[in-house]
Amino acid sequence: MRVLVAEDERDLADLVAMGLRRHAMAVDVVYDGAGAAERLAVSDYDVLVLDRDLPELHGDLVCRELVARGSRTRILMMTAAASVPDRVAGLGMGADDYLPKPFDFAELVARVRALGRRSRSQVPPVLTRHGITLDTHRIQASRDGRHLHLSLKEFAVLETLLRAEGAVVSAERLLEEAWDENVDPFTTVVRVVVSRLRAKLGDPPCIQTVPGAGYVL
């Protein structure tokens, strides 16, 4: 899942991003509204965690612009303005959910995951295929009853392949889904992670390379 966190309190923004990454999400961070609008114009995010009171470009304007162009990105407003009129106003301008500060981090994760499911075609939180079971809530995976000790990147790659339901997934899409913007697209990082994932999944082999196209489960 690809998430953008737009929050001007840098310590909070970085903590939120760090926590979401521990749940196998690819997270980018910006600290003002102009930066959020720029990232949203060039990258396809599943969820935007948006502070309303952003500098340079107010969060309300970021929200309205995103909704106006029909983006599939789901918006979670995260703000200290927590009164009922504030919540009604935020939802009325197109936000999908509203989380007042301070908040419990477990609730934030649950809300982001719920919005992420809504941004895609409806898929269950537990994915199964070829004897593989992947629980996106507990960040656990197994194959034929054998627990798989996966890194967060391996988990994210496997989740993307499972969600594709047998379709070929390009290396570029894996980069978009499982890594943040800081990854070098010209490295062999995808190939390395897929190789490690194959080894952990064991026999019979279930990830095939499609030359010139990508990978298929």
From TrEMBL:
Pfam families: Response_reg (PF00072), Trans_reg_C (PF00486). Residues 2-116 form the Response regulatory domain. Gene3D superfamilies: 3.40.50.2300, 6.10.250.690, Winged helix-like DNA-binding domain superfamily/Winged helix DNA-binding domain. PANTHER family: REGULATOR OF RPOS (PTHR48111), TRANSCRIPTIONAL REGULATORY PROTEIN CUTR (PTHR48111:SF36). GO terms for cellular component: cytosol; protein-DNA complex. It comes from the Bacteria. CDD domains: trans_reg_C. One of its GO terms (biological process) is regulation of DNA-templated transcription. This is Response regulator transcription factor. Residues 124-217 bind DNA. Keywords: DNA-binding, Phosphoprotein. The lineage of its organism: Bacteria, Bacillati, Actinomycetota, Actinomycetes, Streptosporangiales. Residues 124-217 form the OmpR/PhoB-type domain. The modification 4-aspartylphosphate is found at residue 51. GO terms for molecular function: phosphorelay response regulator activity; transcription cis-regulatory region binding. InterPro entries: CheY-like_superfamily, OmpR/PhoB-type_DNA-bd, Sig_transdc_resp-reg_receiver, WalR-like, WH-like_DNA-bd_sf.
